[in-house]
Hints:
- The protein is an alpha/beta fold and 404 residues long.
- The chain has helices at residues 19-31, 42-47, 50-57, 64-67, 72-82, 93-101, 107-114, 133-144, 170-182, 216-227, 255-266, 308-317, 336-346, 388-403; strands at 8-13, 35-40, 61-62, 85-91, 119-123, 148-149, 153-156, 162-166, 191-196, 201-202, 208-209, 231-236, 248-251, 271-274, 281-283, 302-304, 325-332, 351-356, 368-369, 371-375, 380-382, 386-387.
- Helices cover 36% and strands 23% of the residues.
- β1 (8-13), α1 (19-31) and β2 form a beta-alpha-beta unit.
- The longest helix is centred in the C-terminal third of the chain and has 16 residues, at 388-403.
Amino acid sequence: xxxxxxxxxxxxxxxxxxxxxxxxxxxxxxxxxxxxxxxxxxxxxxxxxxxxxxxxxxxxxxxxxxxxxxxxxxxxxxxxxxxxxxxxxxxxxxxxxxxxxxxxxxxxxxxxxxxxxxxxxxxxxxxxxxxxxxxxxxxxxxxxxxxxxxxxxxxxxxxxxxxxxxxxxxxxxxxxxxxxxxxxxxxxxxxxxxxxxxxxxxxxxxxxxxxxxxxxxxxxxxxxxxxxxxxxxxxxxxxxxxxxxxxxxxxxxxxxxxxxxxxxxxxxxxxxxxxxxxxxxxxxxxxxxxxxxxxxxxxxxxxxxxxxxxxxxxxxxxxxxxxxxxxxxxxxxxxxxxxxxxxxxxxxxxxxxxxxxxxxxxxxxxxxxxxxxxxxxxxxxxxxxxxxxxxxxxxxxxxxxxxx
Length: 404
Ligand code: CTP
């Protein structure tokens, strides 16, 4: 989560029962390396204490008493000025109205008027209040001014009612913060397609052939590209992962579906990061009915699937509009660099990420990877053992250079 590292987040907490979730939010942001300054409104203090936030952020949390304390004259300015982003979560209908109309009657709302950084708000309100025309008008005013609104989500409300008004989950809010912080990153205005996961090739209506790819490296690449400000399309085979906030997701299942999606998406993208583990073979015939034991032990004839990167290279050579930069991945269990170099040439790549899957700490379904980057001009760069998120950031940094 390096985009959050060393960033200062001013977290305003207002008087909603969702204030308890703000503590988890502050904790996650702190764990990601951010400095989190918390300001509680008097209403928030009825639900949670400053000590809760001080305990998870390791920093002083501010309350209404501070507005009238010794440092009051500079406090709101200082808090607002040092923030990279001002997040108000949860934001009640009352604070939302004050923000919309410039009311400055609490430390939080005074700081909001002094802040020059982006403002992100996560509303929380019960009993259909969010749908009230007054609230909707305030939301419209704030959005018009460039405020980023996260949620609210639909679901169970504290009153027992069901509806729109729950504060979005901390992960969702952090995803939006990352988008705001990455807005002007090195890939801003670039369209990047990332593929991820292992394709599934049906054997019959209930069974399929697949591989051990978890999709983690591809999803981490999508997140890293978003952090760098790119518009990201994630073409994904089935995985258990949650796509990063802000990515446009195209779900596919088979190698053929992935081929169709990549050819379509790549024709208007600046870069393609082909991290998916695409099946090389599929059953030549797929019965319409489930194969049963009564039928005896089945045997299958396989046929080759299309090679997506080769298909793209052919189109590139035929002059069709293709991404400026295409990066492939090579998962190898032997002759790592030689095989990767051959694939780089055969698939006409700008870079290939060579990955030794025979190592226990790299490759499929683990949290780390040890990769070597090989460029079209023959240059080679071995990266140390890193988390998949760090590998993704390193690749995206190289991508930004290649796109320059
Ligand atoms: N790839 C592809 N289409 C396929 C198979 C792979 O575009 N049908 C892409 C992968 O997404 C990866 C690169 O090609 O970026 C290399 O994949 P890999 O499986 O290592 O190589 P293969 O070409 O499939 O060769 P082999 O499995 O025989 O080593």
